[in-house]
Amino acid sequence: MNELRPAGAATRFAAVARNPGTALTPDWFEDAQVNLSAAERRAASIPARRSVKKNYQAAWLVKALQCIDLTTLAGDDTPGRVHRLCAKAKRPLRDDIVTALGLSGMPTVGAVCVYPAMVPHAVKALEGSGIPVASVATGFPAGLTPLAQRLAEIRHAVDQGAREIDIVIHRALALLQDWAALYDEVAAMREACGGARMKAILATGDLKTLRNVYKASMVAMQAGADFIKTSTGKEDVNATLPVSLVMVRALRDYGAVTGFEIGFKPAGGLKTAKDAVNWLILMKEELGRRWLEPDLFRIGASSMLADIERQLEHHVTGRYAAASRQPLA
Q: Is 274 a catalytic residue?
């Protein structure tokens, strides 16, 4: 079952050429039109007509596991909770499941995502694992603190060891169509990230229309975003397949013009193994096999991992495990 063979840390996080960004070019997006009903029909076709079973399903679920940003963003986070999360990130499956699947080694998640204050604890817990620490920043989740403070928060997280920064855009600038101001802010955040990769969270549930989603995606990429991300997980509406479709079409358009590969991260509301497979299928059909690797695709989730492990245990034993069988992060 070669499909189930996890890549080593060196290849899983292979260097993708950084997106240098471009000058703000409204001609690339100002006249963009999005057919809402067509986007909804296309998105609805993915869970309706696509299904993977048996060994193929297990392979897709292992791939999804490797693309998860295992996340804790709670007000009561403690160093102990972060250490437990990191332990789960390094060993997301029980040894007996790994053996039964015929894997060549223990697969690990794409990253661990925490608040800036928890970055040092995550870095220490993940030392030597090859798993990067991601940190939210820029006044997450609202993004309404002064720009100087948002930039300082990025620099602090990077100084503490974060290799990826999940920034949030100032949504009012997108709603007002002030693309120049949005571009300038995101470009400043990209500069503050230094060598850390930047994921630009658009908070699509707050942007109201799919046209706004497309335009904000394009502006973020022109400003140098390495990933575009749907949501903070705190909005009333988070990641949906229609929104994700529009965003991956935007990054496909950007790549066609510039030649740079931009990553995508849906977050918020993805909870089940079936959700993981649906988004993997979206990436495969719209962008190709290359976007099934963690250097270009991440899933912002935490509870999803438990369901993936449960489904994989069912695959190898024929039985669904009780909750008491699932290790807690």
A: no
